[in-house]
C-alpha cells in the first residue's frame, strides 16, 4: 500500500518546506523507492496562473501544460522526474469541485459542510496519485503555516488520514528555532507553541525538522523531544546551507530518510551515495570561470519570479565549471541613454518572459545592444518576440514593427496572436508571423525550430553571432541538476568563450601599445 508523508510548517512562512520535501524525496529515491511530491496550497485561487509574480513568485508549468506552484519546480529539479496537474491542489480548486457537485445534486440534498464534504474532497486529492500505481511513497507539502485559518481543512484532512491508516501516514513538522545573538541562545518556545497548535488540531508530529543558524546541542534536542512529544532521534537539525542542493546531504547526515522509513515500516536499504550530486556540488564550489549575466525583466525585485531561469543558469554554469553571477536589471528603466552604463560589465544578456507592454522598450534596447556588440543573448517567450520586433525595426527597417499583444492595430505585426487565442480575453498565446519569415531569413535571423503539429516557429537564431537565440518555449522548466538543459549550457559556454576572446584582444592591444 502507498505510504504518505505530510510536511507541515510552523512559526513562520518561507522556511523551505519545498526544499525539505524535495531533499527527503531525493534520499528516498536514491534508496530505491518510487517517490513523488504534491503541493497543497491554502489560497482560494483555482490555480497560480492568475497570481502576480511579485506576490507569489513564478508560475511553474508542468509537462502536461498546467500552471502550478513554483515548488513543483524544486521537486522536478531534485528528482529529475515530471510532475502533473495532480501534483498541485489549491483550496480554490477543492471548493470549486464541492460547489459544482452540490449544484449537480451529488450530495442528495444533504447540508454541505467543511467537515466532512470539503475534507473528504481534500483526502480524495491527497490519494489521487495512488491511482497511477507508480509510487511507493507520496510526499505532500501543505502550504502556509500551522495556525493560518485557511489551513484548518487541510490539517483536519491529514488528521483523518492518520486516524484511518495510522501505519501508512506520518507527519514531518518544519519549524524555526530563532537564535538571539544578544543572549547567545537558541529559543525553543516558538516551536513548542507551533507543535502545541498542531496538537490542538489533533496531530502530533512524528518528526520535527528545526531550521537553525547554529548547531543543536544534545540537551536542546532532549528539551524539544520532551516538550514537543517526539522521540529524541526524530528531532532533526536543519542548518542554513550555502546551496539548496546541499540540503539532501544535511538531511542524510541527520538520518531523516531512515527515520521516516522506520516510522512507515519500510526497509531502509543501502545508504545513498548520490555521485552525480557530489560532483555537481564540487564543481559548484570550485569554479574555474566566472561570468555575469544581465537578467532583463519586469519582476526583478522578487527573484522567485524567475526561479526556474536562475536555477537553469546555475545548472549550466556548474557543468561548465563556471560561477554565474546575475545582475538583475529592471527593463522599465532601460533607455538608449543608459544602456551602455547598465550593460558595460555584462558577459551575456537574457531577456525573460512576461506579459504586457511595460518595460518593452527597455527589453528591445537591451537586445539591440547585445546584437550589435556580439554579446551572447538568450530570449525566452516574450524575450524571443521582442528580439523579432527589434530585428524588424533596426535591421529590416520595417516601420512601426510590433506585436499585436502590445498594439492590436499595428499594420506590421511581426508577432501576432495565435488563431486559437483570438477569442480569449487574457493576454498570451503570441507567435512569430510567418509572413515575415523570408525577410528575416535573408537578413540572417533564421527560424530554426518549429512545433511539429502546427508548424509554428519555436526557435530563432542569428548564426553569424557568437550566440543569439530566441525561443518561444520555456527551456528553464526542463533543466535539472542531473540533466542541465543544453540550450543554457551552450549559452553559458558562449559567454565564457567571448569573455576569453575579449581578454585576449585586450592583452594584444596592451602588447602593441607597450612595444
For the largest beta-sheet, the strand count, sense and barrel status come to: 7 strands, parallel
- Count every beta strand, where a strand is a DSSP E run of 2 or more residues: 21
What class would the helix/strand composition place it in? alpha/beta
Net shape: globular
Biggest β-sheet: strands ordered side by side in the sheet: 5-2-6-1-7-10-11
Determine Rg (CA atoms, Å). Answer: 26 Å
- State mean pLDDT (0 to 100 scale): 90
- Count of helices? 17
List the uncertain runs. Answer: 420-428
Q: Residue share in helices?
A: 25-40%
First-residue to last-residue Cα separation: 79 Å
Q: How much β-strand is present in the residues?
A: 15-25%
Describe what this molecule looks like in 3D.
By secondary structure, this protein is α/β, with parallel strands linked by helices. It has helices spanning 17-30, 53-56, 71-79, 91-103, 114-126, 152-164, 189-200, 218-228, 247-253, 256-264, 275-285, 307-319, 339-343, 360-372, 382-394, 437-443, 486-514; strands at 3-9, 35-41, 60-61, 67-68, 88-90, 137-142, 169-176, 179-180, 185-186, 207-212, 235-239, 289-297, 322-330, 348-351, 377-380, 402-403, 413-417, 430-432, 445-450, 457-462, 468-471. It has a 7-stranded parallel beta sheet with strand order 5-2-6-1-7-10-11, sandwiched between helices. Strands 13-12-14-15-21-20-19 form a 7-stranded mixed beta sheet, with helices on both faces. Strands 16-17-18 form a 3-stranded mixed beta sheet, covered by helices on one side. It starts with a strand and ends with a helix. The relative contact order is 0.10. Residues 420-428 have low confidence and may be disordered.
Amino acid at each position: 500500500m502507498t505510504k504518505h508523508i505530510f510536511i507541515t510548517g510552523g512559526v513562520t512562512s518561507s522556511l523551505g518546506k519545498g526544499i525539505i520535501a524535495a531533499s527527503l524525496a531525493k534520499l528516498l529515491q536514491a534508496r530505491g523507492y518510487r517517490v513523488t511530491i504534491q503541493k497543497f496550497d491554502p489560497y482560494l485561487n483555482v490555480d497560480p496562473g492568475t497570481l502576480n509574480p511579485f506576490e507569489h513568485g513564478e508560475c511553474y508549468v508542468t509537462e502536461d501544460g498546467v500552471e502550478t506552484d513554483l515548488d513543483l519546480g524544486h521537486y522536478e529539479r531534485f528528482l529529475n522526474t515530471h510532475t502533473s496537474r495532480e501534483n498541485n491542489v489549491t483550496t480554490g480548486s477543492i471548493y470549486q469541485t464541492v460547489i459544482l457537485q452540490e449544484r449537480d445534486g451529488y450530495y442528495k440534498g444533504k447540508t454541505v459542510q467543511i467537515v466532512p464534504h470539503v475534507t473528504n474532497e481534500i483526502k480524495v486529492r491527497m490519494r489521487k496519485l495512488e491511482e497511477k500505481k507508480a509510487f511507493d511513497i507520496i510526499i505532500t507539502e501543505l502550504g502556509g503555516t500551522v495556525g493560518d485559518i485557511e489551513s484548518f481543512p487541510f490539517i483536519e484532512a491529514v488528521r483523518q488520514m492518520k486516524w484511518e491508516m495510522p501505519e501508512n501516514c506520518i507527519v514531518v513538522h518544519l519549524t524555526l528555532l530563532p537564535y538571539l545573538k544578544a543572549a547567545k541562545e537558541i529559543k525553543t518556545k516558538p516551536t513548542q507553541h507551533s507543535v502545541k497548535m498542531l496538537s490542538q488540531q489533533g496531530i502530533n508530529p512524528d518528526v520535527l525538522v528545526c531550521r537553525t543558524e547554529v548547531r543543536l546541542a544534545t540537551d536542546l534536542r532532549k528539551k524539544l523531544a520532551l516538550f514537543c512529544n517526539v522521540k529524541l532521534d526524530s528531532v532533526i537539525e536543519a542548518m542554513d546551507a550555502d546551496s539548496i542542493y546541499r540540503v539532501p546531504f544535511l538531511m542524510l547526515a541527520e538520518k531523516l530518510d531512515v527515520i521516516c522509513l522506520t516510522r512507515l515500516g519500510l526497509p531502509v536499504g543501502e545508504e545513498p551515495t548520490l555521485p552525480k550530486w557530489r560532483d555537481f556540488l564540487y564543481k559548484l564550489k570550485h569554479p574555474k570561470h566566472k561570468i555575469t549575466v544581465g537578467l532583463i525583466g519586469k519582476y526583478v525585485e522578487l527573484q522567485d519570479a524567475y526561479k526556474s531561469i536562475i536555477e537553469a543558469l546555475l545548472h549550466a554554469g556548474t557543468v561548465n565549471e563556471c560561477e554565474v553571477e546575475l545582475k538583475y536589471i529592471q527593463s522599465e528603466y532601460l533607455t538608449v541613454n543608459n544602456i551602455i552604463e547598465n550593460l558595460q560589465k555584462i558577459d551575456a544578456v537574457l531577456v525573460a518572459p512576461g506579459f504586457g507592454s511595460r518595460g518593452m522598450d527597455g527589453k528591445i534596447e537591451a537586445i539591440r545592444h547585445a546584437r550589435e556588440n556580439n554579446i551572447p543573448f538568450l530570449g525566452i517567450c516574450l524575450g524571443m518576440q521582442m528580439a523579432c520586433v527589434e530585428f524588424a525595426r533596426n535591421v529590416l527597417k520595417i516601420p512601426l514593427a510590433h506585436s499585436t499583444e502590445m498594439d492590436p492595430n499595428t499594420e506590421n505585426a511581426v508577432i501576432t496572436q495565435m488563431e486559437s487565442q483570438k477569442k480569449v480575453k487574457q493576454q498570451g498565446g503570441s507567435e512569430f508571423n510567418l509572413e515575415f519569415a523570408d525577410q528575416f531569413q535573408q537578413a540572417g535571423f533564421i527560424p530554426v525550430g518549429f512545433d511539429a503539429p502546427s508548424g509554428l516557429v519555436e526557435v530563432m537564431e542569428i548564426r553569424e553571432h557568437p550566440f543569439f537565440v530566441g525561443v518561444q518555449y520555456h527551456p528553464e522548466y526542463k533543466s535539472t541538476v542531473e540533466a542541465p538543459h543544453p540550450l543554457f549550457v551552450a549559452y553559458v559556454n558562449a559567454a565564457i568563450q567571448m569573455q576569453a576572446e575579449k581578454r585576449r584582444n585586450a592583452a594584444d592591444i596592451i602588447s602593441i601599445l607597450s612595444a
